[in-house]
UniProtKB/TrEMBL annotation:
Single Gene Ontology BP annotation: L-valine catabolic process
GO function terms (MF aspect): 3-hydroxyisobutyrate dehydrogenase activity; NAD binding; NADP binding
This protein's name: 3-hydroxyisobutyrate dehydrogenase
Catalytic activity: 3-hydroxy-2-methylpropanoate + NAD(+) = 2-methyl-3-oxopropanoate + NADH + H(+)
Length: 298
C-alpha cells in the first residue's frame, strides 16, 4: 500500500514511521526540514510538496494543526492532485464543522473521506497504539481500518462524517476535567499530610480510580511512563489540551449544550498557558495548584 503522510509533528512523525515499519511505501511531507529528516531515518521517502506526496497514493493521511489548515490543504493541494481512488483520512483534531465541510468537498469530487482523530499522546503515536475515533460512511470503514491499522490499538467507528471529531473533543473534555480533579486531590492530600504516592495506592484501587490516576499520575514515581517523571516534558502539551477544550466549548455553544465544568477547565489551563507553560504537559498544572511553578521549566 502506498501511503501519503502529510504533517510530521510530535504525533505525525511517529505515526508515519509505523506505516513504514509495517512495510508500506510512505511518501511523507512536512514544512519543517528536520521533520523530513526524521521521516527519512524512519524509512519514509520525503516528498518535496503535498502535491508530490499524494500523486500516486492509495491512501492519504493528514495530521495538521487546526481546521483552517485542513480545509486549505485539502482544497488546494490534496483534492486537485490525489487519484480519485485514494482513501483520504484526516487524523487532525479540528472542529466538527470543518470535518464535515472537508468531507463534503471530498465527496463532491469523488473521493472517500474519513475524519479519524486519535487518543493516546506521543508515546502511543511512537508505539503504534493509538485509539482512533472514526467518522465516515459505513461502507468505507473497513478500508479506513486497514489504512490506519499499523498506527492503532483500537479503531472505532463513531458514526458519520464529523462524529470522530465529536467523540475526540468530548473525550478530551473528560480527560481535561478529570486531570484537574486528580491534581486538586493530590495537592490537598499533600497539605493534609498524606503521602501522594500512598494516595496513588489508595485512589487507584477505589472509587476515585480513573485514567489520569492509573496511566498518567501527575506526581513522580507511581506511573513510570507518566510525564511527571520527565519534568512534565513530552506527553500532551497544555496548549493542545487548551485547544481541544476551546473546541468543546465552541461545539457546546453551537449545540446549546451545558458544559460548565469544561468551561472551568478551559479557564485553568488558559491560566497555566498564559503563565508560560503551554509546551509543558497538561498534568504539570499540579505544580500551579501546589504553588510550585518554580519547579517547572516554562
Amino acid at each position: 500500500m502506498r501511503i501519503a503522510f502529510i504533517g510530521l509533528g510530535n504525533m505525525g512523525g511517529g505515526m508515519a514511521a509505523n506505516q513504514a515499519k509495517a512495510g508500506r511505501q510512505v511518501a511523507a511531507f512536512d514544512l519543517a526540514a528536520a521533520a523530513l529528516d526524521r521521516a527519512r531515518s524512519a524509512g519514509c521517502a520525503p516528498a518535496g510538496s503535498v502535491c508530490e506526496a499524494v500523486r500516486d497514493a492509495d491512501a492519504v493521511v493528514t495530521m495538521l494543526p487546526a481546521g483552517p489548515h485542513v480545509r486549505k490543504v485539502y482544497a488546494e493541494e490534496i483534492l486537485p492532485n490525489a487519484p480519485k481512488s485514494a482513501l483520504l483520512v484526516d487524523c487532525s483534531t479540528i472542529d466538527v464543522d470543518s470535518a464535515r465541510a472537508v468531507a463534503d468537498m471530498a465527496r463532491d469530487q469523488g473521493f472517500r473521506f474519513a475524519d479519524a482523530p486519535v487518543s493516546g499522546g506521543t508515546a502511543a503515536a511512537d508505539a503504534g497504539t493509538l485509539a482512533f475515533m472514526v467518522g465516515c460512511d459505513d461502507a468505507d470503514f473497513a478500508d479506513v481500518e486497514t489504512a490506519i491499522q499499523p498506527m492503532a490499538r483500537a479503531v472505532i467507528r463513531a458514526g458519520d462524517h464529523g462524529a470522530g471529531q465529536a467523540a475526540k473533543i468530548c473525550n478530551n473534555m473528560v480527560l481535561g476535567i478529570s486531570m484537574l480533579g486528580v491534581c486538586e486531590a493530590i495537592a490537598l492530600a499533600e497539605k493534609l499530610g498524606l503521602d501522594p504516592e500512598r494516595f496513588f495506592e489508595i485512589a487507584s484501587k477505589s472509587s476515585g480510580q480513573c485514567w489520569s490516576i492509573t496511566s498518567y499520575y501527575p506526581w513522580p514515581g507511581p506511573v513510570e511512563t507518566a510525564p511527571s517523571n520527565r519534568g512534565y516534558e513530552g506527553g500532551f502539551a497544555t496548549a493542545m489540551m487548551l485547544k481541544d477544550l476551546k473546541l468543546a466549548q465552541q461545539a457546546a455553544a453551537m449545540a446549546g449544550a451545558a458544559a460548565p465544568m469544561g468551561a472551568q477547565a478551559e479557564g485553568l489551563y488558559a491560566l497555566f498557558d498564559r503563565l508560560g507553560f503551554g509546551t509543558t504537559d497538561f498534568s504539570g498544572v499540579l505544580q500551579m495548584l501546589r504553588g510550585r511553578l518554580d519547579e517547572l521549566h516554562g
